[in-house]
Structure prediction request, 141 residues.
Amino acid sequence: MQHKRRGRFHRIGIATLGILLVGGTLLSNAQSQQEVNVTIKDYKFQTSQMPLQLHTDTIIRVKNLDNVRHDFGSQMFLNTLTHVESNGVVTYGKGVEGAYLDPGQEASFRLVLDQTGRFQFQCSIHQDMKGEILLLIVDAV
Ligand SMILES: [Cu+2]
Prediction:
Protein backbone atom coordinates (compact mmCIF):
# COMPACT_ATOMS: atom_id res chain seq x y z
CA MET A 1 0.00 0.00 0.00
CA GLN A 2 1.47 3.28 -1.08
CA HIS A 3 0.94 6.46 0.82
CA LYS A 4 1.50 9.74 -0.86
CA ARG A 5 4.18 11.58 1.01
CA ARG A 6 3.70 15.28 0.91
CA GLY A 7 5.51 17.26 3.54
CA ARG A 8 9.08 16.21 3.79
CA PHE A 9 8.91 16.19 7.53
CA HIS A 10 5.47 14.75 7.86
CA ARG A 11 6.22 11.08 7.70
CA ILE A 12 9.93 11.09 7.96
CA GLY A 13 11.30 9.36 10.98
CA ILE A 14 13.44 12.04 12.46
CA ALA A 15 15.74 10.57 15.01
CA THR A 16 17.68 13.07 16.93
CA LEU A 17 20.58 12.20 19.09
CA GLY A 18 21.24 15.02 21.42
CA ILE A 19 24.81 14.60 22.31
CA LEU A 20 25.47 16.66 25.35
CA LEU A 21 29.02 17.53 25.98
CA VAL A 22 29.36 18.01 29.65
CA GLY A 23 32.28 18.93 31.76
CA GLY A 24 34.44 16.00 32.69
CA THR A 25 33.79 16.60 36.35
CA LEU A 26 30.12 15.76 35.89
CA LEU A 27 31.01 12.24 35.00
CA SER A 28 32.86 10.95 37.98
CA ASN A 29 33.61 7.66 36.35
CA ALA A 30 35.86 8.06 33.37
CA GLN A 31 34.26 6.19 30.53
CA SER A 32 36.42 4.38 28.09
CA GLN A 33 33.52 3.84 25.73
CA GLN A 34 30.23 5.54 25.18
CA GLU A 35 27.27 4.12 23.38
CA VAL A 36 24.45 5.20 21.11
CA ASN A 37 21.68 2.78 20.22
CA VAL A 38 19.67 3.15 17.07
CA THR A 39 16.68 0.96 16.39
CA ILE A 40 15.07 0.81 12.99
CA LYS A 41 11.37 0.08 13.23
CA ASP A 42 8.46 0.92 10.96
CA TYR A 43 10.82 2.70 8.57
CA LYS A 44 12.03 5.06 11.28
CA PHE A 45 15.21 5.51 13.22
CA GLN A 46 14.81 5.63 16.98
CA THR A 47 17.78 6.52 19.10
CA SER A 48 18.78 6.32 22.71
CA GLN A 49 22.03 7.18 24.35
CA MET A 50 23.95 8.27 27.37
CA PRO A 51 25.48 11.74 27.47
CA LEU A 52 28.41 11.75 25.09
CA GLN A 53 31.74 13.47 25.05
CA LEU A 54 34.12 14.45 22.33
CA HIS A 55 37.35 12.56 21.81
CA THR A 56 35.99 9.39 23.37
CA ASP A 57 35.55 6.01 21.79
CA THR A 58 31.97 5.91 20.64
CA ILE A 59 30.01 2.94 19.49
CA ILE A 60 26.80 3.33 17.54
CA ARG A 61 24.77 0.13 17.57
CA VAL A 62 22.10 -0.15 14.92
CA LYS A 63 19.47 -2.84 14.89
CA ASN A 64 16.92 -3.44 12.18
CA LEU A 65 13.63 -4.66 13.62
CA ASP A 66 11.75 -4.34 10.36
CA ASN A 67 11.22 -7.21 8.01
CA VAL A 68 12.78 -5.36 5.12
CA ARG A 69 16.36 -4.45 4.45
CA HIS A 70 17.59 -1.04 5.54
CA ASP A 71 20.83 0.85 5.38
CA PHE A 72 22.56 3.06 7.91
CA GLY A 73 24.94 5.53 6.39
CA SER A 74 26.34 8.88 7.30
CA GLN A 75 28.74 11.51 6.11
CA MET A 76 30.15 11.54 9.60
CA PHE A 77 31.99 8.34 8.82
CA LEU A 78 33.68 9.66 5.72
CA ASN A 79 36.42 11.70 7.29
CA THR A 80 37.15 9.67 10.33
CA LEU A 81 38.47 6.23 10.99
CA THR A 82 35.43 4.04 11.43
CA HIS A 83 35.28 0.47 12.55
CA VAL A 84 32.19 -1.29 11.25
CA GLU A 85 31.06 -4.71 12.32
CA SER A 86 28.15 -6.16 10.45
CA ASN A 87 27.09 -9.75 10.10
CA GLY A 88 30.43 -10.94 11.38
CA VAL A 89 32.33 -8.83 8.89
CA VAL A 90 34.60 -6.09 10.15
CA THR A 91 35.52 -3.11 8.04
CA TYR A 92 37.92 -0.48 9.22
CA GLY A 93 39.05 2.71 7.62
CA LYS A 94 38.17 6.10 6.35
CA GLY A 95 35.46 6.65 3.82
CA VAL A 96 33.09 4.06 5.18
CA GLU A 97 29.67 4.94 3.84
CA GLY A 98 27.56 2.75 6.03
CA ALA A 99 26.18 -0.74 6.26
CA TYR A 100 23.20 -2.65 5.03
CA LEU A 101 21.08 -4.37 7.61
CA ASP A 102 18.93 -7.31 6.68
CA PRO A 103 15.80 -7.98 8.76
CA GLY A 104 16.78 -8.61 12.37
CA GLN A 105 20.40 -7.79 11.75
CA GLU A 106 22.65 -5.56 13.84
CA ALA A 107 25.66 -3.49 12.93
CA SER A 108 28.00 -1.45 15.04
CA PHE A 109 30.08 1.56 14.15
CA ARG A 110 33.00 2.61 16.30
CA LEU A 111 34.51 6.01 15.90
CA VAL A 112 35.75 9.00 17.83
CA LEU A 113 33.75 12.17 17.43
CA ASP A 114 36.12 15.09 17.31
CA GLN A 115 33.97 17.99 16.27
CA THR A 116 30.61 19.48 17.07
CA GLY A 117 27.84 19.99 14.59
CA ARG A 118 24.90 18.22 13.07
CA PHE A 119 25.54 14.86 11.52
CA GLN A 120 22.82 13.36 9.46
CA PHE A 121 22.41 9.69 8.81
CA GLN A 122 20.01 8.04 6.47
CA CYS A 123 18.82 4.89 4.80
CA SER A 124 19.90 4.90 1.19
CA ILE A 125 17.16 2.44 0.25
CA HIS A 126 14.31 4.52 1.64
CA GLN A 127 15.14 8.13 0.98
CA ASP A 128 12.64 9.42 3.53
CA MET A 129 14.40 7.69 6.39
CA LYS A 130 16.69 10.21 7.99
CA GLY A 131 18.05 10.91 11.40
CA GLU A 132 20.43 13.31 12.95
CA ILE A 133 23.14 13.36 15.54
CA LEU A 134 23.59 16.66 17.27
CA LEU A 135 26.84 17.44 18.95
CA LEU A 136 26.16 20.24 21.33
CA ILE A 137 28.55 21.79 23.72
CA VAL A 138 26.94 22.46 27.04
CA ASP A 139 29.01 24.59 29.33
CA ALA A 140 29.34 23.16 32.77
CA VAL A 141 28.06 25.57 35.40
CU1 LIG B 1 15.31 1.76 4.88
